[in-house]
Amino acid sequence: MISRRAMLTAGASALAFPASAQDMRSLKAIAAAKGFVFGSAAASYELKDGDFAPLLAREAAQLVPEYEMKRDALETKPGFYDFAALDSLFAFAAKNRLSMRGHTLCWYYANPPWLVSMLAAKRDEKLLTSHIQTVLRRYPMDSVDVVNEALAPPGTAARADSLRPSLWLDAFGPGYIDMAFHAARAADPKVKLVYNDWGFEQGAAENDRFRSATLRLLDGMLKRKTPIDALGIQGHLSAFGNRIDQRKLRAFLQEIRDRGLIILITELDVDDTGGPHDSVSRDRAVADEARRFLDVALDNPATQAVLTWNLSDRYVDPPDEWKLKLLGWRLRKTPYNAQMRRKPLWNAMAQAFSDRRIFY
Ligand code: G3I
Questions:
Q1: For the chain, what is the domain count?
Q2: Least packed by Cβ within 10 Å: which of 299, 337, 339, 345?
Q3: What pLDDT digit, counting tens, does each position of 113-149 carry?
Q4: Quick check: CB of 66 below 6 Å from ligand 1?
């Protein structure tokens, strides 16, 4: 019979143990049992951390490169590719039997300076299509963000077609989106082709407009028979700002399913900017907002994957506000803290995954 003191001591010391001693389950196993994939974004430099790499391999069934596949990191000169960092992520995934998803082939941001000037000088479609072919012919992936954030973000003045101004739109007009998807399908007949964006999650009027604009974009693509398989919903949430609206989100996800598209939650994290100073209440609020979001997202059978944008706070970009930067404020957006200990967000995700109803 274990004494009460011994039990309390064991309980207290469990908090000091690494996460693995607290609960042998992994997010990928809990997700798999409910018919979907859990994964995370990672950057190649993170794999050098001995207390992180095994944790990532244990928790995630799929990886997405945080920046190594972006054009400014990959094609540093016209036609010259530095694949080393991206190869190391694919090698880690292969060694640990994780699948990969790609991010991103066509974006308004993270383009090398040479491309910006060359595109302005010569509107050659190969400046987009040959890059897509190069990446997809080298890397086998489960899904890929063919176009990222092509719509004017919530709260910004939008064109009639709601497209975001970009070097691609300037060069080729709205047709650049179809061009990218057709080039991707031609390069890889199997990979799931994804349109990825953010702004569908919250409940403000600007988000209503964004959801409508997204449906118009997708309906146009489907009508023109553009090869698209999935909508990537980034899932950048806020614990103390513009909160998600479960009713509006549920209705929107149903619209996506009604169009025969897969739903991927591609970059889940919860910003705790604006919260109180104590980390306990910030962590609680982060966990609660994620749970509110996942309860809706996972209650749609079209949702096939949930990926977090980083697995540990150690790798999260510092806050934008310079005052918080000066204070050394670390954002607490992910399931593990900087010391690789599970946070309430991990528990909230595990519970939401476990509570997902089975769809027959
Ligand atoms: O690796 C270089 C380093 O060699 C160089 O010295 C340093 C200074 O220039 O830059 C480093 O690259 C940085 C890279 O992150 C890796 O840390 C880039 O400057 C920096 O712009 C890049 O920021 C990333 C950003 O996308 C732009 O690519 C963020 O880490 C990443 O979290 C963010 O992710 C985006 C998604 O792609 C799209 N959805 C929103 C999401 C969050 O903003």
A1: 1
A2: 339
A3: 999 999 999 999 999 999 999 999 999 999 999 999 9
A4: yes
Range of the domain at 264: 4-16+25-355
pLDDT digits (tens, 9 = 90+) for 230-252: 999 999 999 999 999 999 999 99
Q: What gap in Å lies between CA 124 and CA 92, rounded to an integer?
A: 36
Q: How far is the CA of 52 from the centre of ligand 1 (A)?
A: 20
In a domain, 360, yes or no: no
- Pairing type for strands 230-233 and 262-271 reads parallel
Q: Identify the active-site residue in 59, 66, 267, 289.
A: 267
Which is the closest atom of ligand 1 to the Cα of 309? Answer: 32
Q: Which of 40, 48, 66 to mutate to test the pocket of ligand 1 (most atoms within 8 A of CB)?
A: 66
Report cis status (omega within 30 of 0) of the bond before 214: no
Q: 343-357: per-residue pLDDT in tens?
A: 999 999 999 999 999
Distance between CA 334 and CA 70 in Å, rounded? 22
* Residue 126 belongs to some domain of the structure: yes
Nearest Cα residue to atom 27 of ligand 1: 110
Q: Which residues contact 204 (CB under 8 A, 6 or more apart)?
A: 154, 155, 242
**Is the CB–ligand 1 distance for residue 108 below 6 Å?**
no
CATH code: domain of residue 182: 3.20.20.80
Cα 251 to middle of ligand 1, angstroms: 33
User: Is 125 a catalytic site residue?
Assistant: no
